[in-house]
Amino acid sequence: MRELPCIVLKSGKDQSARRRHPWIFSGAIKKIYGNPATGDVVEVYDNKDERLGAGHFQVGTIAVRMLVFGNERIDGNFWKRRIEQAWNHRKEEGVFQPDKTNAFRLVNAEGDLLPGLIVDYYNGCAVIQMHSAGMFKNLTLISEALNNLEGLAIDTLYNKSRNSLVNYPEISVVDGPLSGKRMHGEILENGNGFTVNWEKGQKTGFFLDQRENRLLLERYAAGRKVLNMFCYTGGFSVYALRGGAELVHSVDSSEHAIELTNSNVALNFPGSDKHSSFCTDAFGFLDDRDDQYDLIILDPPAFAKHQRVLNNALQGYKRLNQKAIGKIRKGGELFTFSCSQAVSKENFRKSVFAAAANTGRDARILYQLTQPSDHPVSLYHPEGEYLKGLVLKID
After folding, report:
1. Domains (ranges, CATH) in the chain?
2. Is 307 a residue whose pLDDT tops 70?
3. What pLDDT does residue 131 have?
């Protein structure tokens, strides 16, 4: 007799689970037994009663987020084991270097076999962001597992899940500390200092996924006039200044983002006269600038969070990149990114290709960029590779 509610898939709809894709879509389900509630663990079977695994159930397009496959069970040590595996991976990769880099992604959802769970570590604070009701129901066990990690000091656990769980009206979430009291703090990233506010900042407070790409940009900055569009916390601006840029202009439509950028520049380069910030619309700013910058960074917010707006997003990337390519100096470099999961690498590259072609300028790809190793992507879940980037030489 089965102890858990179970899902039986339609004939022929089991191949995705057999290939270890972590999502079971509602259209693949033939029958539900046991009346599971949103967030409950359910077992998944094929149409011939073979167990395919188990995961968190929810009502919606993605009906089950798989936690285990085959005959593996979710036992009492499951959360401890999975989170320790995630931490061990970061240690093996050398991501955490307390005197150089003390902020990183500790748990990356499907990439760490924990779909629906993000944990970012900021110099003693672990910020938890849950994207599923199943993860919310296990918050206590997740917190215990985090607090018991060996070799990683955590003085504050902070829950930042209110916005990521808005589609679950049955769940009442209040952002705030689960333990400790800190709402903000300073971190080191490749030796640069940054102030992070996990209470008021976007996502968990800082975009850790651009760490290695910022370091690459530093190599190109010497003697350059740099434009950092959609600057947010000013990460790329700080690295450009450390790389010896002649001047750096940071642009964002948010006054709060400009304040963050100015604060982080002052933290690393007090009194510097090489940096200026502008609170204005990105497109409008570029309209007024001709042949001024040798190095431009385009790191906009996600233009497409859903497939239904994909075409509009691709047109947006095309327009933005066309404008930047048309303005950059001959021989300059463009660092251009998309963080939209709905936009594939191929589609993003096609949009940038069309943008460059419309300007009539020669463009060469120097690098194709993605997220760092503390944001791993499951081979079976290519959707997890959300960050796409190109470094172009524009002639």
Report:
1. 6-69 (2.30.130.10), 78-190 (3.30.750.80), 207-394 (3.40.50.150)
2. no
3. 96
